[in-house]
Specification:
By secondary structure, the chain is of the alpha+beta class. Helix content is about 45%, strand content about 30%. The longest helix is centred in the middle third of the chain and has 68 residues. The protein is rod-shaped, with a radius of gyration of 58 Å.
């Protein structure tokens, strides 16, 4: 607080007795006042009324538009009334105090001064607000101690005494326990004020309420702790790669993932590359080069392996973003490094288990298809034998009996009987032919006798001899025999394909080509009809038992089926074959 201009005015019985005119320039109404003049006529009404109405007064008055500190005291000597009036200019001082108060409020700063002898403390407005002081009574260091958190009292006292004894500045943080549920964090700076002889006169303090700052720091620390905890749970750390210096900074979690100590890593990309698996190192180096040249697709991830000091291999997942400078050039890369070893191991196990499951399903389906196919073939063979050995023998017996009856009839004895017998012989012959055809269709004897390719030729000749369709067959000239189940299934597949073509294709030309290559037989059938996709047979005329049997037999034989529609139907079947021992 600095002193302003001050004027002393003495009144004797209402008249001006004396004026300390040395500093009266700031009071215009006293500029031309004469000693002995009437004070009521000379002084401003506000000042005169205050003097007249109070025995004592100490306060502020606005005189000539300026704030003045006025102190008035009255006394009676003999019969004379003496008035002492001190008028002090405090306008600039009030403005300075107001600015100081505003500064303290904005910065949450306060100041106080402690007398080194009496330990009495004088506070600024800001300090009073921070300490929440409302009383105007004298305040001492021991009173301040009652506001300090019990755990911090000794430290504050020690810092104060050390400053006094060593005449040095100090800086410390401590807490105020103003209420049971309110703790205020204080940052204090202090220095000593010396008197004329160099002894400590007082200790000057500046205090700042840093509670919000502390709360922010604690929130950041809590957030960082939670981040570390989350990183630990997720096996995920972060990195920052400074391109210019090649500095590669990794978080604590990455150190843990790599099982590294600080002295084992110098925080450079060159050093980090040493931990990468030799088979993946070139890949990572190439990616780094692309990232430096801004050729790497933003948001794209990278998977690679690292080798720990104990030889353990871990799988890492990396993803980051590029930070550019004002010139558009890359400054750094920031991102994450995640340990995905467990996921990769589990994925491999799942793939293996899924492969095994698919194999078992395929094997089960194959066994089911085999059972169905063999059951069908057994039933066909049984029916063929019954037709041949049962009904065929009966028809043969009927034929011989009719021959006997014919021999007992005299030639030309009865023309009607002769004609009837001839018709019965024709029907009987047709029945025997049909039965042989049905029996052969159920269990083709030509397959048993001439093998796969010979039987296919016979099948084509027989099937298309009664249709206008032109058939072109190309088959190997081979008498090799294969496993009977394979021969029968391949025969049935071709038989059903040809039947399907005759019934549904509306074709005039059919090409059937069989070929052998590397223990595989390839069956290729094409026509110039309306076309159908056998592999995706969702049309009504293809949803038949025969088509299902074709697919079952191909699956049973571990074959592959391709079919498409392009100017007619085209079907390609590839089946592995086993030579008969």
């Amino acid at each position: 607080m600095r002193n302003g201009n001050s004027t002393s005015l003495f009144l004797v019985n209402g008249r001006i007795g004396a004026i300390d005119s040395s500093y009266s320039s700031h009071l215009l109404f006293l500029a031309n006042v004469s000693i002995g003049s009437n004070a009521m006529d000379t002084l401003p009404a506000l000042l005169w009324n205050t003097i007249e109405g109070n025995n004592t007064f100490n306060g502020e008055l606005t005189l000539e538009g300026l704030i003045k500190q006025v102190k008035i005291t009255k006394s009676i000597i003999d019969t004379n009334e003496l008035v002492f009036c001190n008028i002090k200019d405090v306008s600039s001082e009030s403005l300075e105090e107001e600015r100081l108060s505003m500064t303290e409020q904005i910065a949450q700063i306060g100041f106080f001064e402690m007398d080194s002898e009496t330990e009495q403390i004088l506070f600024s407005v800001g300090a009073c607000k921070i300490l929440k002081l409302k009383t105007q009574k004298a305040f001492y260091f021991n009173d301040l101690v009652t506001l300090i958190h019990p755990n911090d009292i000794a430290r504050v006292h020690r810092a104060t005494m050390q400053a006094i004894n060593t005449q040095t500045v100090f800086r410390l943080e401590f807490r105020l326990a103003l209420h049971s549920d309110e703790v205020v964090h204080i940052l204090a700076n202090g220095n000593v004020k010396l008197n004329a002889v160099g002894k400590v006169e007082s200790v000057l303090w500046s205090i700042q309420d840093i509670s919000k700052q502390k709360a922010y720091e604690e929130a950041i620390e809590y957030s960082e702790a939670r981040l570390k905890y989350a990183e630990r749970i997720a096996n995920l750390g972060n990195f920052e790669w400074i391109i210019k210096s090649d500095q590669f900074i990794i978080s604590d979690e990455v150190y843990r993932i790599l099982d590294l100590n600080a002295h084992e890593y110098d925080e450079t990309m060159t050093s980090f590359l040493k931990f990468i698996h030799p088979d993946d190192r070139i890949k990572v180096v190439n990616v780094n080069t692309q990232q430096k040249k801004l050729l790497w697709k933003e948001g794209e991830s990278l998977n690679f392996r690292v080798v720990l000091s104990n030889g353990e291999v871990k799988h890492l997942y990396s993803k980051g973003e590029t930070v550019l400078g004002p010139d558009g050039k890359i400054v750094k890369r920031v991102g994450i490094l995640m340990d995905v070893t467990k996921q990769v191991t589990l994925e491999k196990k799942l793939k293996s288990a899924d492969k095994r499951r698919r194999e078992l399903v395929s094997q089960r389906e194959k066994i089911g298809a085999e059972a169905i196919i063999f059951g069908q073939e057994d039933e066909r063979q049984r029916m063929s034998m019954e037709l041949h050995d049962g009904l065929g023998q009966i028809l043969t017996a009927v034929y011989f009996n009719l021959n006997h009856i014919e021999s007992l009839t005299e030639p030309y004895e009865n023309k009607k009987i002769e004609k009837s017998l001839a018709e019965v012989f024709d029907l009987l012959q047709d029945s025997r032919t049909s039965i042989r055809a049905i029996a052969n269709n159920l269990m083709p004897q030509v397959l048993m006798k001439f093998g796969l390719f010979g039987s296919i030729q016979a099948l084509v000749d027989d099937l298309f001899s009664k249709t206008p369709i032109e058939v072109y067959l190309k088959a190997p000239v081979s008498k090799n025999r294969y496993e009977q189940s394979q021969e029968i299934s391949i025969y049935r597949i071709i038989q059903e394909l040809l039947n399907n073509t005759v019934k549904h294709s509306k074709a005039s030309v059919v090409n059937l080509r069989l070929s052998l290559s590397n223990n595989y037989i390839q069956i290729f059938l094409s026509d110039n009809g309306i076309g159908y996709d056998l592999a995706n047979s969702d049309t009504t005329h293809l949803q038949s038992k025969g088509i299902s049997n074709i697919k079952q037999r191909i699956k049973f034989l571990s074959g592959k089926l391709n079919s498409k529609v392009k100017r007619g139907s085209k079907v390609l079947i590839k089946i592995p074959i086993i030579h008969k021992n």
